[in-house]
Design goal:
heterodimer, A: 329 residues, alpha/beta, seven-stranded parallel beta sheet, 41% helix, B: 324 residues, TIM Barrel, 43% helix, globular, binds zinc ion
Chain lengths: 329, 324
C-alpha cells in the first residue's frame, strides 16, 4: 500500500472520467429521486472502475471521476440549500438542459462529495485522491438568480456554503482540493476576477497542509492576470495543449511562481497523442516551471471522450512523464 | 409619440414542439406531422403575445436552430460547421463555413412571415440576421476579397428583405456584432458601413426598419450606430450603466426606437412599475416617432415558462407607461 509521489513531474487528472454504464444508470435513478442502496452501489462501482483505470494507466494523483455528477453545476445545486432546477433551456439546436435557479439564501446542509472521496481513497492503493468542487463564480454564472439580484452577495454566500464542504473534506483527510472555475475564462471583467479571488479566499484561504488548486480552461484565461497571481492557491491547473501552450509565454512574463498543472493531452480530440508529442509539451512547460512544481495532466475533464480513448491518452501521458523524468535525471 | 411593446426576436419552443422535433429525428413522426405541431405552436405563441397586448408580434422563429441557421442552410456557397459559443451566452450556434459564392436560391423566411401575417390580428415583425454579424460569425474559406463576400451577402439578404417588405410591418435586421466589445471600435465602425450599404439597397422606409443590437451597449458603439440613421433596438440590460450613459450622452433622434428594458437573460423578478420608471427616464432623452418596449434580446436564454412571464411584464409595463 505504500506509494510515493515522484519528486518531479507528478501525473494527475482534472477530475471527470467517461461515465461507466453504472453511472448512467445511477443518473436515471437520481432523476426519479431514487437514492437508496442500489443507487449508492451503482455510483461506487463506477468510481471503483474509474480508479482502476487510473491505476492501470499509472496516474499518480487520481479522482473519483465525478461519476456521481451528471452536470458539474446542477449536481451541487441539487445538494445545497437555496436552489431549484429550471425548466429546460436550449443549449443548441433542439438540445436543452436544466439550469440551477437560486430561490433562497444558499446554505450547506450536508456532506456532498466526502463519501465519494473517502471511497476512492480506500481503493487507490495509497495514491492521493484529489477532490474537485465547482467554484462559486461558475456556480453563479451557470445559474439563474431569482433571489439575490446581486452577484457579489450570491457568490460570497456560495463560497461560504462550499467552504463548509471543504472543511468536511479536509477533516476527512483530503489533501488535494481543486476548485473548478471554467466560467472565469469567458467574458470576465476585472471586478469578476477580484470577486472570484475573494470567494476562493473564503473557500480555501485559511487551509494549511492542503494543496489548493484552481482549474480554468478554454477561452480568455489571459484576463485573469495578474490578479490570479494573488489568488490563495498553490497550484493553477490549465488547459494548455488545445491552445498550443500559448499561456506559457504569459506565465513567463509574470514570473509565475506557483505550481503549474500543465494540460498535455487534448480532451476535445479523440486522437491519441504520441508519447513523443506529450514529452514535447512537457519540455515546453519545463522551460518556464521547474520539474518539482510542474504537474502533468489532460487539459480538462475526460468525460466527453470514449473510455478507451481516455485510458489510452492517460497511458501515453504517464509514459511521457516517465520519459521526461529520465531525460532530467 | 406612439408607444408599443413587443419581443425582440424569438420565443422558446413549447414542450410539444421540442418533443415533435426529437420524434422527427428518431423517425417516429414525419415532416407533415411536425409541420402540424409547428403551426399550432406558432399560433399559440402569437396568441400569447396578443393576449398580453404586444404589437407587433413575431412568429417566435420556432424552427430556427440558431439565429443564422435558416440562412446558413439555405444560401448556396455556405455549409454548416461546428458549434461555437454565441457571444457570451451558454448557447451555441453552428458556424457557417463559406465554401463558394453566396447566393440566395429561394425565399427563406417568407413563407413563415406570410403565415404569421395571416394569423396575427396585430402588426407583425420579421427578423433576420444582418450581413456584418453573419460575416463575423462565419468562416471564409472561399473569397479572396472580403469586399466581394460582403457584397454577395448583402445582395442575398436584400433579396430576402425585398420579399418580406410586403408581408411584414416591421423588418428587423439583427446585428449584435456592431456592439460586440470583443471587436475593436475600428471593426465595429466597419460593421456600420456594411449595414449602411445594405440599407442603401432596400426600399423599406426607415420607420419600418430596425437594426437590432444586443448583449452590450456602450457610448462609443452607440455613437457610431446613430450613423445608421434608422430604427434601432438597444439592449439596456447587459451593460446597464454604460447603456444609460450612451443614451444620456447622445440621445436618440429617429423614427423608431426599440428599448430592450426587460431582461431576456435573467429571471430575477422585474416589476412593471420599475420597468415603466426606467422607460420614462429614457424617453425624456429621446425623440422617436415610435417607441417599442422590448426584451433585451431573444428569449432563447430562458425556459418556456419564464419567457411567458416576460410577455406579461412587457404588457403590464406598456399599460403602466401608457397610463401616465
Ligand atoms: Zn476544464
Amino acid at each position: 500500500m505504500s506509494f510515493r509521489l515522484p519528486n518531479k513531474l507528478v501525473t494527475t487528472i482534472v477530475g471527470s472520467y467517461p461515465y461507466f454504464p453504472e453511472a448512467l444508470k445511477a443518473f436515471q435513478l437520481r432523476k426519479r429521486r431514487v437514492r437508496g442502496s442500489e443507487y449508492e452501489e451503482l455510483v461506487k462501482t463506477a468510481i471503483r472502475k474509474t480508479v482502476e483505470d487510473y491505476l492501470s494507466a499509472g496516474v499518480d494523483i487520481v479522482s473519483d471521476g465525478e461519476q456521481r455528477r451528471e452536470d458539474m453545476a446542477v449536481f451541487f445545486a441539487e445538494e445545497l440549500k437555496g436552489f431549484e432546477i429550471s425548466e429546460p433551456v436550449r443549449i443548441f439546436d433542439n438540445v436543452y438542459y436544466r439550469k440551477p435557479v437560486i430561490v433562497d439564501d444558499i446554505e450547506w446542509t450536508h456532506e456532498i462529495v466526502v463519501e465519494d472521496w473517502r471511497y476512492a481513497s480506500s481503493i487507490s492503493r495509497g495514491r492521493p485522491v484529489k477532490v474537485t468542487l465547482t467554484g462559486p463564480y461558475t456556480m453563479y454564472s451557470w445559474s439563474f438568480d431569482k433571489h439575490y439580484g446581486n452577484m457579489r452577495n450570491a457568490i460570497l454566500d456560495l463560497a461560504r456554503a462550499l467552504a463548509r464542504e471543504v472543511e468536511a473534506l479536509v477533516n476527512a483527510g483530503a489533501k488535494y482540493v481543486q476548485v473548478d472555475e471554467p466560467a472565469l475564462s469567458t467574458r470576465v471583467e476585472k471586478e469578476d476576477v477580484k470577486l472570484a479571488g475573494e470567494a476562493l479566499e473564503i473557500m480555501v484561504g485559511k487551509l494549511s497542509n492542503v494543496k489548493r488548486i484552481m482549474h480554468v480552461c478554454y477561452g480568455k484565461i489571459e484576463r485573469l492576470f495578474p490578479e490570479v497571481l494573488d489568488y490563495p492557491i498553490d497550484q493553477l491547473d490549465l488547459e494548455t495543449k488545445n491552445s498550443e501552450y500559448r499561456l506559457l509565454k504569459l506565465l513567463r512574463e509574470y514570473s509565475f511562481d506557483k505550481e503549474l498543472a500543465l494540460g498535455v493531452v487534448d480532451v476535445h480530440s479523440s486522437r491519441i497523442e504520441t508519447i513523443e508529442e506529450i514529452v514535447d509539451g512537457i519540455r515546453k512547460g519545463l522551460e518556464i516551471i521547474p520539474p518539482d512544481r510542474l504537474y502533468v495532466k489532460p487539459d480538462c475533464g475526460l468525460k466527453r471522450l470514449k473510455r478507451e480513448t481516455a485510458l489510452a491518452k492517460l497511458r501515453n501521458m504517464v509514459k511521457a512523464a516517465e520519459k521526461a523524468r529520465e531525460e532530467l535525471a | 409619440m406612439e408607444i408599443n411593446a413587443g419581443i425582440c426576436g424569438n420565443f422558446p419552443r413549447p414542450p410539444e414542439l421540442r418533443k415533435a422535433l426529437d420524434e422527427l429525428s428518431s423517425g417516429k413522426i414525419d415532416e407533415k406531422e411536425l409541420n402540424r405541431v409547428f403551426k399550432l405552436s406558432m399560433r399559440k405563441i402569437v396568441e400569447l403575445q396578443e393576449e398580453n397586448g404586444l404589437n407587433p408580434v413575431t412568429s417566435g422563429l420556432l424552427l430556427w436552430h440558431d439565429p443564422l441557421r435558416p440562412f446558413a442552410e439555405s444560401f448556396s456557397g455556405v455549409q454548416l460547421g461546428g458549434l461555437l459559443r454565441f457571444f457570451d451566452n451558454n448557447f451555441y450556434y453552428r458556424r457557417p463555413i463559406i465554401t463558394g459564392p453566396i447566393k440566395r436560391e429561394k425565399p427563406i423566411t417568407v413563407e413563415e412571415v406570410g403565415e404569421l401575417s395571416q394569423i396575427a390580428k396585430t402588426q407583425v415583425k420579421a427578423v433576420l440576421p444582418g450581413p456584418y454579424t453573419f460575416l463575423k460569425l462565419s468562416e471564409n474559406k472561399f473569397y479572396q476579397s472580403e469586399d466581394q463576400l460582403i457584397d454577395d451577402l448583402i445582395e442575398a439578404l436584400a433579396a430576402e428583405i425585398e420579399d418580406l417588405n410586403g408581408l411584414a410591418d416591421i423588418i428587423q435586421v439583427d446585428e449584435p456584432s456592431l456592439v460586440d466589445p470583443e471587436l475593436s471600435l475600428e471593426e465595429r465602425r466597419k460593421g456600420v458601413e456594411v449595414v449602411k450599404e445594405l440599407i442603401g439597397k432596400l426600399r423599406v422606409p426607415s420607420d419600418r426598419l430596425i437594426v437590432a443590437t444586443y448583449f452590450n451597449l456602450d457610448p462609443d458603439s452607440y455613437s457610431i450606430l446613430l450613423d445608421l440613421k434608422t430604427g434601432l433596438h438597444l439592449d439596456l440590460c447587459s451593460s446597464r450603466d454604460k447603456a444609460e450613459e450612451a443614451l444620456r450622452e447622445y440621445g436618440f433622434k429617429g423614427s423608431i426606437l426599440s428599448l430592450g428594458i426587460v431582461d431576456s437573460r435573467s429571471i430575477f423578478p422585474e416589476t412593471p412599475a420599475e420597468m415603466a420608471g426606467k422607460t420614462r427616464k429614457i424617453l425624456e432623452k429621446t425623440s422617436a416617432e415610435k417607441v417599442m418596449i422590448s426584451t433585451s434580446s431573444w428569449l432563447d436564454y430562458l425556459p418556456f415558462n419564464e419567457a411567458v412571464e416576460k410577455l406579461r411584464i412587457l404588457g403590464r409595463t406598456l399599460r403602466e407607461v401608457a397610463s401616465s
